[in-house]
Automatic annotation (TrEMBL):
<feature type="transmembrane region" description="Helical">
    <location>
        <begin position="165"/>
        <end position="185"/>
    </location>
</feature>
<keyword id="KW-0812">Transmembrane</keyword>
<keyword id="KW-0813">Transport</keyword>
<protein>
    <submittedName>
        <fullName>Alanine/glycine:cation symporter family protein</fullName>
    </submittedName>
</protein>
<keyword id="KW-0472">Membrane</keyword>
<dbReference type="InterPro" id="IPR001463">
    <property type="entry name" value="Na/Ala_symport"/>
</dbReference>
<feature type="transmembrane region" description="Helical">
    <location>
        <begin position="429"/>
        <end position="451"/>
    </location>
</feature>
<feature type="transmembrane region" description="Helical">
    <location>
        <begin position="406"/>
        <end position="423"/>
    </location>
</feature>
<feature type="transmembrane region" description="Helical">
    <location>
        <begin position="197"/>
        <end position="216"/>
    </location>
</feature>
<feature type="transmembrane region" description="Helical">
    <location>
        <begin position="20"/>
        <end position="44"/>
    </location>
</feature>
<keyword id="KW-1133">Transmembrane helix</keyword>
<keyword id="KW-1003">Cell membrane</keyword>
<feature type="transmembrane region" description="Helical">
    <location>
        <begin position="316"/>
        <end position="337"/>
    </location>
</feature>
<feature type="transmembrane region" description="Helical">
    <location>
        <begin position="259"/>
        <end position="279"/>
    </location>
</feature>
<comment type="similarity">
    <text>Belongs to the alanine or glycine:cation symporter (AGCS) (TC 2.A.25) family.</text>
</comment>
<feature type="transmembrane region" description="Helical">
    <location>
        <begin position="357"/>
        <end position="385"/>
    </location>
</feature>
<dbReference type="Pfam" id="PF01235">
    <property type="entry name" value="Na_Ala_symp"/>
</dbReference>
Length: 475
């Protein structure tokens, strides 16, 4: 435990402290020092992709994404749904609440900035996952992710080595992280149902594990369930938030004014709080959208899609969905609640109080159900991620796949009954190590992803030009 605590502090603790006016300090962790500059670098190298190609992201999402000929793979949009299921979780609810509680409304602005930068990183890693994917003999379709493009980076063709050490470390870090998240998921759901419905955690946990087992132990049930669950839960949360916003429309100018004022405000600088504003928004944004961590590429690689860059664009859009849409929804629910009602509250208590203010008893029930959907979909999504990592470490063996699923179900059960801080930190350590190993590959392999982007844009331009010429001839 001391070893993992040390690793946690190295990854997430303040590695560098910068003094600011007013007595505040800006603490920069190792992951912030890696991911933020990487996001800036990739944004410049992709020629500001998040802004320039946002309409193209929407177009690719709306076009008809069918499965491949074998019918066992998943479409590009299905891969986006799986990655969204993992991004949209506890962090979008309690995580945003914690960021605003510690950093004020200005933290929301910095979450938005991190999302804009992270979209380019998400594009690079998802495109690489497509470029280095391989056939999946167990589940059908394709598999891949950072373990696989790390393998190609360090193992030359013709080498007798079957595995790369760095790729194995990434895969192992992912499996450790997702076990930790399984425990957190169980605890989040059982706690929410106990608070909202007074159901004992044991009953909730037994039902949760039984339902999860029925889904994850079947070969293709996970994607089918997420196909239905993710769009429904995201749409419900979004439209409920829109209703709350419209009901409080007169307060919106003040809310946005508060966000921008506290992001750069003189009062925060003088009061010594500007460092907390920036870092709480940045850290929460990085943790929530997962860009650069190497998680989403495990789903992106499974997509059967006509061009690798298309999946990159889809995963870039996933960062926007997570942070600019879902996280912003939570922020608006909070910021439109009178501060006198939420003073001294934290976590789910604060969020449930806000929902009760806006929607009465229905609000408390709604947020408990939404938390269940968000957390449960995350659990299903991470087990989809785990497939490729288990296969890389242990080969194409059903026994290895099944044993890891059983381990995750056990962690889900344990988490439902009690919260262990060590396991929460274990998940943070896992995602931190994944990020370190993933970034080792992103910089040297980025030119291949950028070449894929240029090729896609060239093909797209040729198709558009040809289409216009055909229309002219017909006219």
């Amino acid at each position: 435990m001391e070893f993992f605590t040390f690793i946690y502090q190295v990854l997430w603790g303040d590695l560098i402290t910068i003094p600011l006016p007013g007595g505040s300090t800006l603490g920069l962790s190792l992951l912030v020092l890696i991911l933020v500059p990487a996001g800036i670098y990739f944004t410049v190298r992709t020629r500001f992709l998040p802004f320039r190609l946002f309409p193209e992201m929407i177009r690719v999402t709306l076009e008809n994404n069918q499965r491949g000929k074998e019918g066992e793979g998943i479409s590009g949009v299905q891969a986006l749904i799986v990655s969204t299921a993992c991004r949209v979780g506890m962090g979008n609810l309690v995580g945003v609440v914690a960021a605003i509680s510690a950093g004020g409304a200005g933290a929301v602005f910095w979450m938005w900035i991190i999302a804009l930068l992270g979209a380019s990183t998400a594009f690079i890693e998802a495109t690489l996952a497509q470029l280095y994917k391989e056939k999946d003999p167990l589940y059908g379709g394709y598999r891949g992710g950072p373990a696989y493009y790390l393998h190609h980076l360090f193992i030359r063709k013709g080498s007798r080595k079957k595995r790369s050490l760095i790729a194995c470390l990434f895969a192992l870090s992912g499996l450790i992280c997702w076990c930790g998240i399984s425990q957190v998921t169980g605890n989040s759901i059982s706690s929410a149902f106990e608070n909202a419905f007074h159901i004992p955690p044991l009953y909730t946990t037994i039902a949760l594990v039984a339902l999860a087992a029925v889904i994850v132990l079947r070969k293709h049930a996970t994607v089918k369930v997420l196909d239905i669950m993710v769009p429904v839960m995201a749409a419900c949360y979004f439209f409920i938030t829109i209703f709350i916003i419209l009901a409080n429309a007169s307060q919106l100018p003040a809310v946005f004014g508060r966000i921008f004022q506290e992001a750069f405000g003189f009062r925060q600088v003088v009061g010594g709080g500007i460092g907390a504003v920036i870092m709480n928004g940045a850290k929460r944004g990085l943790f929530s959208n997962e860009a650069g961590s190497g998680s989403a590429p495990c789903a992106a690689a499974a997509a059967e899609i006509s061009h690798p860059a298309k999946e990159g664009l889809l995963q870039a859009l996933g960062v926007f969905i997570d942070t600019l849409l879902i996280c912003s929804c939570t922020a608006m629910i909070m910021l439109l609640t009178p501060a006198s009602l939420t003073a001294g509250l934290e976590g789910m208590d604060l969020l449930q109080t806000s929902m009760q203010y806006h929607l009465g008893t229905f609000g408390v029930i709604f947020i408990a159900v939404i938390l269940w959907l968000f957390s449960f979909s995350t659990f299903l999504g991470i087990l989809f991620y785990a497939r490729s990592n288990v296969a890389y470490l242990f080969g194409d063996k059903w026994i290895a796949q099944t044993l890891y699923k059983i381990l995750a179900l056990i962690m889900l059960f344990i988490g439902g009954l009690a919260a262990y801080q060590f396991v929460w930190d274990l998940g943070d350590v896992g995602v931190g190590l994944m990020t370190i190993f993933n970034m080792i590959a992103l910089f040297p392999l980025a030119p291949k992803a950028l070449a894929s982007l240029r090729d896609y844009e060239k093909q797209r331009k040729q198709r558009v030009t040809s289409s216009i010429d055909d229309q002219k001839e017909q006219a």
